[in-house]
Amino acid sequence: MKESLGKVTIVDFWASWCGPCRAENPNMVALYKEFHSKGLNIVGISLDKDATKWKEAIAKDKLTWTHVSNLKFWEEPIAIQYEVQSIPATFILDASGKVVAKDLRGEELKAKIAALLSK
Known about the structure:
With 119 residues, this protein is of the alpha/beta class. It has a single domain, classed as Glutaredoxin. 37% of the residues lie in helices and 22% in strands. It contains 4 helices and 5 strands, in the order E-H-E-H-E-H-E-E-H. Helix 1 links the parallel strand 1 and strand 2. Helix 1 runs parallel beside helix 4. The longest helix has 17 residues. The radius of gyration is 13 Å and the shape is globular. The relative contact order is 0.24.
């Protein structure tokens, strides 16, 4: 993950088949548009098994940040490393790569990102 770190990075675990994940995507798109120029990066990590459905979801939801998946469903090595038990799951990392918050949504997430980027 280190190569994609900005001032703040959101590691977002999701999947094309996950309704709550897809419902959250417009919020992530808005957050990225507002804060990317200030140093926010997002890395999407998919728990998909079907590459076509995964790529279609990225395009349809207009997710313009970096995406990775080993197409291994719950056996996704990065998800195992982060001990992800359910999705959507988000981890907010500071510039040093340390997890400073997790599973924030909506206004709570926006406020945390704004605060971290203002440091």
